[in-house]
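Researcher: Re-running this chain for the archive, since the previous output was lost when a drive failed. Same request as before.
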Amino acid sequence: MPLSSVNGHEMYFADTGGEHRPAVLLGHGFFLDHTMFAAQAEALSSRGYRVVTWDARGHGNSTTGDAPFTYWDTARDVLGLMDRLGIRNAVVGGLSQGGFTALRTALLAPHRVTGLLLLATEAHALSEEDRRSYTTMFGELSERGAVDELLVPLSHQIIGEHPQAEHWRRIWKTRPLPLGLPARCLLERDDITHRLGEIACPTLLLRGSKDVSVPRDRMEFLHTAIPRTSSLHEVEGAAHAPTLTHPEETTAQLASFLDSLEHR
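Model: Regenerated structure tokens:
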């Protein structure tokens, strides 16, 4: 998994290789990294898809850079990575902030995005209530560090009551948390709901039935605003990260959608 210099920072990515079927680029959620798609990358690559997963700025092994950035900038990172790997066009997707990036990638370069995979994500800006809540959480993490009192509720919000929650708490204790500029990017993201009608590619919508991070109505809005979306699929019992807790069900939905693109 190499580092590549993209738009002024070092970007870490994993690439399964392969050229027989479309490339699929997947972006992870906040506090996570590219490994949240390990099960999907393995399963989809066995079906002939080239799967590229990557660490967003300030997450995993990717650097943050020195300047403030937005999800439009991370979308340009995706396009830069595609250029670096010689990928002309691809299905682009992601979970939560990965979806924020995927939507903006489709708006920046519609000719290069042949499909969208939108998992537990939205096009709205943060609500004022969520902004206050997240600002408080980031402040406490900055002041107190990765203590269980803060990490346990955070892991349950993202992952739910599942062994993966403990796994990620261990990871958060061993590396810097994405505070500072990554947190600012999340808190200050812009509203792009008025531009969703511009997205012309087929789009899959998927969420966990117990997700409290992105309300169901935000994803239902995507269904009404993006012209060529699927119905909203729910993974029963999953929280915000169904790729981790319900990999087989999630992968089946992704594979079915990707296979359908080849018959359109």
